[in-house]
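Subject: complex prediction, re-run

Hi both,

The earlier run crashed halfway through, so I resubmitted it with identical inputs.
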Amino acid sequence: MALDNDTVHGIARLARLKIDDHEVEKYSAELGNILDLVAQMEAVDTTGIEPMTHPFDATMRLRADEVTEHNQRDKFQAIAPSAERGLYLVPKVID
Amino acid sequence: MFNWDQRWDVVIGLEVHAQLQTKSKIFSGSSTAYGAEPNTQASAVDIALPGVLPVMNYEAARLAVKFGLAIGAQINQRNVFARKNYFYPDLPKGYQISQMELPIVGFGELDIDTPNGSKSIGITRAHLEEDAGKSLHEDFQGQTGIDLNRAGTPLLEIVSEPDMRSPSEAVAYLRKLHSLVRYIGICDGNMQEGSFRCDANVSVRPRGQVEYGTRTELKNINSFRFVERAMEYEIERQIDILEDGGSITQETRLYDSDKHETRSMRSKEEAHDYRYFPDPDLPPMVLEDSFLEEVRATLPELPVAKKARFETELGLSSDDADLLTADREVADFFEATLAATKAETKIVANWMSGELFANLNKSELDINASPINSQQFALLLDRIADNTLSGKTAKQVFSALWEQEEGDVDTIIEAKGLKQITDTGAIEAIVDEVVAACPEQVQQFKDGNDKVIGFLVGQVMQKSRGKANPKMANELLIKKMS
Amino acid sequence: MTITTLATLAADLKDGKRSSVEITQDYLERIEHSQHNAFISTNADFALAQAKAADAKRASGDTTQLLGVPVAQKDIFCIEGTQTTCGSKILENFIAPYTATVVENMHSHGVVSLGKTNMDEFAMGSSNETSYYGSVTNPWRSVGRGSAQDPLVPGGSSGGSAAAVAAQLAPAATGTDTGGSIRQPAAFCNLTGLKPSYGRCSRYGMIAFASSLDQAGPMTHTAEDAALLLNSMAGFDTKDATSLDIPTEDFTASLNHSLEGLKIGLPKEFFGAGLDSEMAAIIETAVKQFEALGATVKEVSLPNSHLALPSYYVIAPAEASSNLSRFDGVRYGQRAAEYSDLVDMYTKTRSEGFGNEVKRRIMIGAYALSSGYYDAYYSQALKLRRLISNDFDAAFAECDVIMGPTTPSPAFAMNSKSDDPTEMYLNDIFTIPANLAGLPAGSIPAGFTQAGLPTGLHLITPYLQEAKLLNIAHKFQQETDWHLQAPPPADGALNSNLGGKH
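This time it finished cleanly. Structure:
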């Protein structure tokens, strides 16, 4: 099941990836192959089966409401691509 | 009151984001305190460093359950966090941890008062989620600055059914909810700081039509006043379009309070596809019955019950009871005063709804910030009850207390010489003066005009500079004139 | 050349034969002179400072078992102050500002971190060929011998760790396993590799690929070493909501228990078509060895195991597509040099920063979760995951351990499968089911093919029975010497096309 080019571009946009026009065919075929591999799932009747999201059906542990973290801004922003006056800078966001 | 063409029905549903009052964030140990320097409360988890993981805050779960129990909602004892995926610079992980299929709080109801009586508004669900950071647009040479202090603050998103039929109903619901979350102590309700935010889904349909019209979502309405005005504007806008034969576009609109208009938010490049799925870092939350019972035991008396008690046990009017139970702090102040004073319940209610509220409103203060505490207030009312003060002099003392003049109620009375004259001899002397000075009114009284006594008492009060006990003056006047 | 184990080094340190600084220095020099491209980075100052501190502790009477023993760390673990790339360009300049819990645990046991090993980008791969930092050669055949025999891959994604230990550049290494990334390279490089039960080792600070499947574990020469290293890695961590809150265990305690009466289950599905016949024979011989130790063998069935691969290739990419959204060029990592606006910045940063395999998996994951496809793909995959997990429950009602081949075939040549992603994925058909079910699973050296290539015996035990698994492996290793075999020394000519950055 090959994906059409529009679908490939659409998924790429959702994932903030750019697929060049000359690569689209390749991606379309490769993704199609993976979907073919996955297609075996369709045949299985899973009526009444509860999806298993976590191994062993683990349940959540909660933590106490305590402030345990302290300011590490300088350390964290030392590795930032662009920061100024304590803020991370990005190209203008337009609402 | 706002009116629109009666050929149209209005349908409104609200989504309220209430910030839960926890010390630390929902999934990290960072402080949630408001107003810190940018990014100083943004931990490794909050800035989504590679490899970090969320761990859920117990208190956030407890407060959400408290809300659910307060509205009699179904609590989902197995609830699940899901990831809502989208890219935005104030969303460090590229997804928001929220709840989708199994929210912590299921269906519940909240009753509001309308001109036509009580009305029940359905609450579809309330779910836990994390807040995003803030984008700051000023001063960075055309760039946007990102502050992630707010990222990860716990929110309870409370989603109503589309049950409201006018902006005033919507505001009534919002006020009720606002009061409730503060009553039960899960949210400070501060709208300026964004602790209580509202989005409104608004649509109109021809009267009688069953299907809903196309709705728009109004964002950025952060005060009760704006909520109502934004909805009014939006309803008129939609009706105008429909009456001109147009159609409504389903979209998100931003309310501009300065221009009093709503405008479309720049349409996104693609339709939203949030690709929700259960968060693999957070297994399902399972809440035991015993936990629910523990939380239930911490619920305070809720507004509805309190109002009923104020009416039946304290004999307050429905209006007074409403006024005094709208806020938990007000109700607490009232009950604390009542417990400490000998004054009658009605007097306490009158002085709160009158002098105290008037001054609070004038100074734009919450009752918590009142310069007069309930103990001083009780003492003041005691001095009315024991005839030390008249209504008039009591107001002078109130005003001195309000201005935080030195001393307590008694020392102020002493310092200002406001102690009511209850000495019969002293009042009698003044009464004699008044009877001598007003022969005409005395004669009228003797001729059977009882009403003139008011004038004469007034004269006594004036001469005593308000300090004579009016009741005694009244009695003595009658005695002298008969 | 004979292998050096953690146990040997620990004994040498204890007896004062060598210092940690000497041992560490020795390994650092070997790394420097090696040609396998097994490491992305080393930090000699950092390692030697740790070694020095370990020697000082020992002098003051500290007798912690692994004190001063050097171990290589997969470059998926954040270590404060050191470069942590996860095999990706997008993290090329990333100096981690904090340390992963697993590494912190090891450090508190006195383990010295030698350096960061090469890996498939974001652990997505089975050959180490997707690393931005170049391919890794398998020490068992690292040099091309004419056109017919290209160098072999070490397996992946923990290919650098496997190559490092096999080539004696480190006595042991950490790995992570999402679908076989510890076990498959262990099998390809003649090592013992263990994927513990999900939740046994904290995931905090381990860069996420597929959160519900990822698990860290040891890669060593022997089962005894794996037990020693796991002792230092495992433990409850409050920073990971999926970490198991259970008492700590000494995984070495039951290594020598008798295997008398052990019930071995052989799933018929693991011995069918697709399995190399030479491999099948080797596994059969290994199983006979266990019978000699008193075990009994019976056939069991994992009827849904053929669905493991499809369900894995939905679940893992779906989780990954979301996990990798944080790499957006805003707070750390690479940002594209030029861009016109915010969306362009995101898109260029991610397109330039991620390699093809990562992009493919992100896209498959995004597609499987997208509106209209969720039920058919993601939800269905999670239901199959339960069926697969249920199969194990049923099988373990009849046996104590499940055995089979770790991989369908031994190590393959570089570039032989990299053009066909789905062909590559088939490498993991035997290893994936244990990840889906969260069970402990390991690979141990089982013998060599005619061509002299190592093979792995795959062991799966019930939940939390790592100690049992290691006991089984250790007893086997007492009777066999496959795990003691070292690769032939590389014969001179080095393939200059390999190694280094693109």
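Chain A has a mean pLDDT of 92.

- K.
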